[in-house]
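Bench log. Compound arrived from synthesis this morning; before running ITC I wanted a structural hypothesis for how S-adenosylmethionine sits in the protein. Inputs:
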Amino acid sequence: MCVTVREWSLKCTMHHLFFIPLTTTLHISYVALNFRSMSDKQNDCLPEDPTWPELKLSHCMYTQTVRDIHAVIENEWDSVKLSACQTAAGRALWKHVINDPFAEILAGETYLRSLFEKMMKDRLNKAREISGVILAVRTLWFDSKIEAALDSFGGGETQVVLLGAGMDTRAYRLGCLKDCSVIEVDLPEVLEVKATLLHSAMSSKIEHCQDVILAKSLTRVAADLTHIDWLARLQSSGFVPDKNTIWVLEGILYYLSQSKAMDVLKIIADSCAITRTVLLADFMNKASTTLSSSTYQFYSDWPEDLLPPLGFSDVKLTQIGDPDAHFGLLHDPMNLFNKLRSLSRSIQTDPENGAPCRRLYLVQASGSPI
Ligand SMILES: C[S@@+](CC[C@H](N)C(=O)[O-])C[C@H]1O[C@@H](n2cnc3c(N)ncnc32)[C@H](O)[C@@H]1O
């Protein structure tokens, strides 16, 4: 089978771990490699399954509808919207730790192949981290914190609002949402395409892709978070301001400008005065936004200082690799994340090699009426 990729810099950067360049063009031959023979202990976060190296896409990826949709995505979407598919590719290819059967069809072949090739190269080069691991850890962290927040509410009706939901399928995959109304917010084009792709997956009867929503309800709200009307749109679609709410902002804040991101955070903080509120969000530090100054805008080097004045309390910040953001996926003690964790957070460049200290902070904050 032939796939196409471009030669990658094997230098380990957050960009390398996170994203797939959009200009993926060269031709490569796919060779089924037997990774079992490798004794790269560093990479034992990947499954030992000998079939793993084969990227087998399900038949429904090749239906005309799915191909047409992904052609439109690739030709017409900008990098911000495309990030939804790239993130889904991460979940699809880290399926040994994330159960997201819809992720493959939502990601599309191009992004799956692209990330897959990077993972293969990482394995061959005995990289200290495998591409996409940061997405896997982030997803698992959000999953675990959503469940913990629901437990902390001790039952009762809860809303889970996913801002910049992209190709997130938590409403279909997390049993802990059974009593929750889930509301997904994203740009109209993204939600439209997502609904069509999910429908295709369900009607193709791919294994485990059933039309079963585990959440109590699921509502999709097309809204632009940079427009002032997004909260009104949410409210007119069933969001209840005084219901316990978990706000999930996974991979979204840094796509907004500094002022728009602050507006979103302020709106969520205001809800702390009305009802029990939990915010779960990831923040890039300033150095991370230099990866793509045209795409990444908002950053905070100190989210724990930024959030309390807005109205949040109990802010807890986690770095990738911390005990609650590890999930057994970062075995090499010399991995990039451990290196960053060993350096003071005020340090902007690695004293050993001058590389920018690019960090992704996982933050939970909460608030409730006094
Ligand atoms: C990196 S993806 C993350 C998607 C999802 N949260 C996940 O983790 O899989 C970023 C998402 O934010 C959405 N987004 C970016 N800017 C937005 C805006 N102004 N309004 C609504 N959604 C936006 C994009 O369309 C995209 O789906």
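What the model suggests: DSSP finds 13 helices and nine strands in the chain. The longest helix spans residues 133-153.
ITC booked for Thursday regardless.
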